[in-house]
Amino acid sequence: MGNLKIYPSKLKGELKIPPSKSMAHRAIICAALSDKLCRIDNIDYSDDIIATIEAMKSLGAIITKHEDYLEVVGVYKNIQNTKKNKMIDCNESGSTLRFLIPISLLFDGSSRFIGRGNLGKRPLNTYYNIFDKQNIKYSFKKDILNLEVEGRLKGGTFEVEGNVSSQFISGLLFTLPLLKEDSKIVITTDLESKSYVDLTLKVIKDFGIEVINNNYEEFIIKGNQKYEGRNYKVEGDYSQGAFFLCADALGNEIVCKDLNIDSLQGDKEVINILKKMNVDILAKGNEIEGKRRKKLKSTYIDGSQCPDIIPVITSVAVLAKGRTEIVNVGRLRIKECDRLSAITSELNKLGANIIEKEDSIIVEGVDELEGNVEVWSHKDHRIAMTLAIVSSRCKKPIVIKDYDCVSKSYPNFFEDFEKVGGISVEWNVG
Fold it and tell me: How far is CA 227 from CA 65, 112, 149, 217, 361, in A?
């Protein structure tokens, strides 16, 4: 891991926002489960997307990478001819892990899931409960991802909590239509991150799968369906665009290109949050820019439906007048790092005034940030990118330790950062 010294500078210009990681995961999976050759356009080869590509190849799909698109030959016709013992390396991708576990149970033989970082600490009890009910063999190690599963998933009624991770629901939505039996997913608590379920429903429908959504309380899935091969273009990513829209809120001038204003992505909520904080949002075609009106205002933010953008939103709240309360964000503690603790400690080093609670953070706005310190990404891509963006409002340079973790979701982030005026140099700490 490397260290980067960033000098305060105004960011200005235009950027093409990378393709949506969430939608790319889903499109790759649907294409790989189809019965034809598919082309997936607008692909960015982040670590997480590579993990899903390699995972679907492990299940038998043939995937050819080109510069910015994929050719995918679906595994459906040869579903009986896959390897009996499959190794699926999820790297640090929670989506890959939770999507692929039930999908792997469409195939004969065993599947072993491995990964790195904090991935082994992410809860999987939802699936373990299903395995127990259906007599599916499994073994795992605590806190280290080394999960082995063997058996065939059968249709039926699946009771799933909605406040742990929507990824369990998506994993089942990908899988259940391909079973012989009809199925039903019953949500036993309030559903958080509904937008991610919406994305799954949209993409599987684009590939020919029908699901009945009864007000997010239950999902009715007919069996014996097939994924229909097609060509697909991935739209721009609001979770990445949020960094530069928040940079606009901090007084920079960046036009974000390739963002669909009608997108179903939950992280589009960044637009509504910034509007409440005194930022005008200018949208023209697929270009969006934020314009701050005089001073930023504090606000109240419920982060339950958009957890990924909370770190960078916090950096805006730090410089807003008054008290901002960000609630329902306890799930940020089980991401690549404990993001509530990380964003509190690192922004406070810069001069912010943030109080960390169990499930929320309280931000008292300050007039300026000092800088002239060493901060740490905690090897979390979203913390690293947040610190880079907020550096534009520091009085003095900062050093970000382990900045290159951005490869997980946005490999070219610092190249784009420099395109719009960011000034940074590799730095040898000490």
Answer: 21, 25, 24, 25, 43
Q: Between the CA atoms of 126, 183, 48 and 202, what dihedral angle is there, to the nearest 10 degrees?
A: -130
| All structural domains of the chain | 3-17+236-426 (3.65.10.10), 21-221 (3.65.10.10)
Report d(CA 155, CA 133) in Å as an integer.
12
**Residues 133-186 pLDDT 10s:** 999 999 998 889 999 999 999 999 999 999 888 999 999 999 999 999 999 999
Beta bridge partners of residue 64, listed in sequence order: 71
Q: How far apart are CA 296 and CA 355, in angstroms?
A: 20
CA nearest 196: which of 126, 264, 260? 264
Report the catalytic residues. Answer: 308
User: CA-to-CA distance for 395 and 391, rounded, in angstroms?
Assistant: 8
pTM for the whole structure? 0.90
> For 230-282, how does the pLDDT look when each residue is reduced to its tens digit (9 = 90+)?
999 999 999 999 999 999 999 999 999 999 999 999 999 999 999 999 999 99
Residue type for 293, please? R
**For residues 427 and 4, is the Cβ–Cβ distance under 8 A?**
yes
Nearest C-alpha neighbor of 374 from the set 354, 345, 353: 345
